[in-house]
Design the sequence.
């Protein structure tokens, strides 16, 4: 039944061939001039490659790894109002559109006509890396399209160099400021630690072992001094005893003593007794020594006796030895006091060291932490200076025009052959629909089956339409008139659509995007 219906629909073309032909021609007459009248659009593309001549293994650039962000920043600047206005005025873009619409609409059109296609590759680690990008411009003139694409590519290259150089300089200055600030902090921490060391020199925790070693040495020296003092004290006691014995012997052997000699002998006994108990600096010892000297002068004025001469010489030798022993004892006493003072000082240092350990450790840790930060910043500063040098000499990561845009020999759109093919099939469909629609409004019977289906009266005979020469002539005249009028109308419509299409750049761009 479906096949019969389709066949019946196609038979409408036979019954209304003129209408179908006019409809077919009308669609083609409207669409074909419009397609041929659409302005051609040319697409020009410039390819820019991203290359880095210095591997990051040799220097960690301050601006590496920011290609995508830099591309976005450059794109925003390239599509800025001032930059687009400069392009429009330089290449006289969209002259007809500029005369009709505000400048904002023209700028929006130019932004849509510029495309940046980023091409990435996976360099490992799952993160794509931009290796190149293409800048495309679509315009009505092929030479202008190529010039605009090349101008934008050159702008990307130049702007990338400026951005990288500016970023490298800013990074170096920022790190340098941090380095100077850290250096001030480090110097201040070092000054605090030096002041603490200078104030508590000798009693620092790390000097405890030295202080203990010094205490051991001083204690050994003190022990030796004490032993020597004991020996000298014993010798002095023996000398004093010998002197006293000589004085007693002199007194026994002497037949008579003068008053000064008696007093001198008594004074010497008392002096010997005092020396056994006190040092020479004791007041009574000094006074007694002065008295002996005075009495000795009086005795010397009287002159020595002949019997006591030998005893006097022996006593003088013992007295000299005693005086020498006293001098040595005085020196050892001073040395002992000095050693005890040193020992007391070192003991104080050892005792105070634990209390200063936390403060010293805090100062040392603070200085060490700041020093580590300073060393890290110094390394970064050296790398930043090297990176800045590379950027200045264009040896860092840079953009280079790989393929400059050339004037395209063929238009990118619209695709007229495809549009004409679609128009041809559309005309066929329109012709069929017109014939079917005309057939729907025709109330006459076209076949015996339709008549039998309409009435129960039996059909006896079918008489075909008898066409006379006049009928044939009238039909031809009418068809000629219809074709003439239709042709004239279609010519006017075709001319109008062609003229309309010449200014329909928007339609060309829309068809180019759809294609």
Sequence:
């Amino acid at each position: 039944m479906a096949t019969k219906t389709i066949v019946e629909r196609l038979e409408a073309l036979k019954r209304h061939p003129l209408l179908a032909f006019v409809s077919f021609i009308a669609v083609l007459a409207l669409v074909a001039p419009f397609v041929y009248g659409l302005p051609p659009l040319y697409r020009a593309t410039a390819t820019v490659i991203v290359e880095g001549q210095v591997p990051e293994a040799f220097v960690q650039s301050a601006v590496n790894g920011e290609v995508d962000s830099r591309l976005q920043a450059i794109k925003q600047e390239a599509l800025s109002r001032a930059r687009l206005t400069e392009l429009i005025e330089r290449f006289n873009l969209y002259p007809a559109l500029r005369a009709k619409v505000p400048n904002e609409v023209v700028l929006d059109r130019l932004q849509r006509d510029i495309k940046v296609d980023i091409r990435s590759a996976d360099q490992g680690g799952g993160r794509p890396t931009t290796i190149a990008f293409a800048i495309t411009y679509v315009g009505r003139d092929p030479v202008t399209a190529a010039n605009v694409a090349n101008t934008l590519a050159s702008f990307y290259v130049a702007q990338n160099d400026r951005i990288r150089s500016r970023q490298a300089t800013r990074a170096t200055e920022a790190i340098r400021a941090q380095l100077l600030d850290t250096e001030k902090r480090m110097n201040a921490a070092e000054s605090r630690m030096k002041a603490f060391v200078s104030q508590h020199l000798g009693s620092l925790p790390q000097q405890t072992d030295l202080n203990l070693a010094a205490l051991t040495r001083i204690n050994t020296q003190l022990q030796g001094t004490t032993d020597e003092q004991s020996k000298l004290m014993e010798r002095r006691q023996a000398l004093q005893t010998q002197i006293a014995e000589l004085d007693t012997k002199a007194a026994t052997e002497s037949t008579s003593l003068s008053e000064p000699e008696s007093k001198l002998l008594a004074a010497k006994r008392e002096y010997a007794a005092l020396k056994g108990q006190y040092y020479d600096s004791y007041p009574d010892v000094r006074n007694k020594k002065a008295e002996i000297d005075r009495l000795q002068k009086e005795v010397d004025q009287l002159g020595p006796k002949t019997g006591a001469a030998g005893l006097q010489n022996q006593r003088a030798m013992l007295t000299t030895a005693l005086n020498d022993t006293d001098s040595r004892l005085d020196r050892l006493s001073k040395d002992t006091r000095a050693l005890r003072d040193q020992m007391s000082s070192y003991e104080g240092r050892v005792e105070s060291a634990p209390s200063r350990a936390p403060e010293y450790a805090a100062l040392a840790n603070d200085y060490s932490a700041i020093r580590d930060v300073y060393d890290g910043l110094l390394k970064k500063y050296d790398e930043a200076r090297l990176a800045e040098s590379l950027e200045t000499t264009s040896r860092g990561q840079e953009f280079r025009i790989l393929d400059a845009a050339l004037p395209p020999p063929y238009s990118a759109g619209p695709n007229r052959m495809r549009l004409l093919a679609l128009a041809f099939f559309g005309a066929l469909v329109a012709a069929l629909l017109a014939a079917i629609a005309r057939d729907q409004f025709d109330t006459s019977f076209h076949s015996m089956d339709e008549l039998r289906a309409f009435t129960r009266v039996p059909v006896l005979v079918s008489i075909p339409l008898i066409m006379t020469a006049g009928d044939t002539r009238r039909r031809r005249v009418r068809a000629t008139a219809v074709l003439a009028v239709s042709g004239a109308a279609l010519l006017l419509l075709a001319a109008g659509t062609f003229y309309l299409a010449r200014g329909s750049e928007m339609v060309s761009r829309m068809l180019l995007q759809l294609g």
Q: What stands out?
A: Confidence is low (pLDDT under 50) at residues 53-65. The chain has three domains: 2-38+415-514, 42-178+379-403, 206-355.
